Amino acid sequence: MSATNAMGLSKVQNIIAIASGKGGVGKSTTTANIALAMAGAGYKVGVLDADIYGPSQGLMLGITPGSHPETLDEKWFVPLTAHGIKVMSMAFLVDENAPMVWRGPMAAGALQQMLLQTHWDELDYLFVDMPPGTGDIQLTLSQKAKLTGAIVVTTPQDLALLDARKGIEMFTKVQVPVLGIVENMSTHVCSQCGHEEAIFGAYGGQQLAREYGIQQLASLPLSMLIREQADAGNPSVIADPQGGIGKAYKELAAIISRQIDHKLAGPSISIED
User: Fold this and answer.
1) H-helix or E-strand spanning residue 266
2) Integer-rounded Cα radius of gyration of the chain
3) Angle at CA 155, nearest 5°, toward 215 and 230?
């Protein structure tokens, strides 16, 4: 895509929204690992934590609690840096324990400020970790930034798939292409006996992708390791890049990069055994 004319985004080549219809499906973990995989491949990457009410990227990326961005020329936020990527979040602007008791327009205004008044500088990819749902935040992002595309994260569970449909329909209405679906928690493998079970249902993401004529980009397991690594601020791509989960996220990032005609002279992602 061509860079948006908004000053804060003038050097950002691609903006990717990572969304979900409902919470608890692993959207933020997916965002962090995709961003880290892209950065590991040599791309310049940023993450905007657009979940105003429940920001989590600071924790997942290991940023020290209480960290705040510096300002530039009294009008720009300077994003924090973690594992080689630029990060901006509401968690950096307020006390981490303070609840955001705001109406929708206030939250949308906060998003607009972080999006357009952060000094992102040159980025190949800006990944936006969206809040659940299809409300003011989502509309503000689609209006204020020219999105390259969106990725919808779901689980195979019927309730999650129902809300994921709403997310796909929303992006269609605002003319943002949906790059594909990521299905999290597809199966659980017992750590004691090795038995694999689809506890949230089977093939839900695949069926949803087929219904809308889009691609299922990845099918990832329900894994305690993914959760532990993210909670420790050291997501799977960093904690165990050659492990099965780390490689799965890197392959996911490679698929995304192949889908996007970014017209950059940057490197391509390759997966090594």
Assistant:
1) none
2) 18
3) 105
> Which residue do the tokens 């009008």 mark?
75
Instruction: Please state, as a whole number, how many other Cβ atoms lie within 10 Å of the Cβ of residue 247.
Output: 18
Structure-block tokens of residue 107: 């939250």
Would you state the structure tokens that stand for residue 48, as one six-digit string?
């905007």
Residue 244 belongs to what H/E stretch?
Answer: helix 244-259
Identify the CATH assignment for 7-259 out of 3.40.50.1100, 3.30.70.100, 3.40.50.1370, 3.40.50.300. 3.40.50.300
pLDDT tens digits for 44-68? Answer: 999 999 988 889 999 999 999 999 9
Please list, in sequence order, all residues whose beta carbon lies within 8 angstroms of the beta carbon of residue 106, skipping any fewer than 6 positions away: none
Q: Are 111 and 77 in contact (CB under 8 A)?
A: no
CA–CA distance, 10 with 93 (Å, rounded to integer): 23
Give this prediction's pTM: 0.89
In Å, what is the CA distance from 252 to each residue of 72, 108, 191, 225? 35, 30, 25, 18
